[in-house]
Design a protein that fits this description.
Structural class: mainly alpha
Distance between the termini: 16 Å
Mean pLDDT: 79
Radius of gyration: 18 Å
Number of strands: 0
Number of helices: 9
Low-confidence stretches: none
Strand content: under 5%
Shape: globular
Number of domains: 1
Helix content: over 70%
Largest sheet: none
Amino acid sequence: MLIWIILFSVLGSVGAILAASIFILIGEKVQKKLVTSLLSFATGTLLTAALMGLIPEAIEYAGEPHLVSIVILGGLLFFFFLEKFLIWRNCQVDDCEIHTHATGPLVLIGDAFHNFTDGIVIAAAFLANFGVGLAAGITIIMHEIPQETGDFAILLHDGMSKKKALLYNLLSSTATIPAAIISYFVLDIFETTIPIFLAISAASFLYIALSDLTPQLHEKTETKEIIKQIILVVTGILVMILVLSIGPHSH
């Protein structure tokens, strides 16, 4: 069982990164166009993953909606203060008439939380039932690919080089593997913390989508761009709805 848990943890983290790394093979011009488009797609996937995936799961695990709401509120405040600190720190070093985006670090922190939770969920699912474990593992792989691709686009847009973005994305994604292995041995301890990790991940996704990505999308005012953004946001939403509908809940 442990081998299956490790296998799906690796596929869920490294497999998703391999899909995202296709960007490295793409030319600079095409890449810039794709990054702009994927920001719209990422907005749709982040909102849907938070509102239709992570938050309902957290409430179902905890059985206390108020607790989940408090953690989400605390998470939103945490990411707000963190972004303020990152902007302040950047502006102490550089003469910045326009604040440097702090989206990249927020994406990585939120993604690490999310991937850590994925590891716990994979272990819990396989230990509950092999079939449920397979369904949960496949679902996680499928939702990680569009999510990591969107995250990769955000990091590139934030000014990171392709190699740096790939390395940081890989580091945050590999949180799935140790979480799954540790959870296999001490699941009782981690199971009580799953709603907290889910809620913090949801808070980070909501904050990034609404505070950082949406304002950037509003900078484009051409009719053609607006239509393209709407189509891609809706596409991101539909892709995540499809992914979330596959397989039974992991618990």
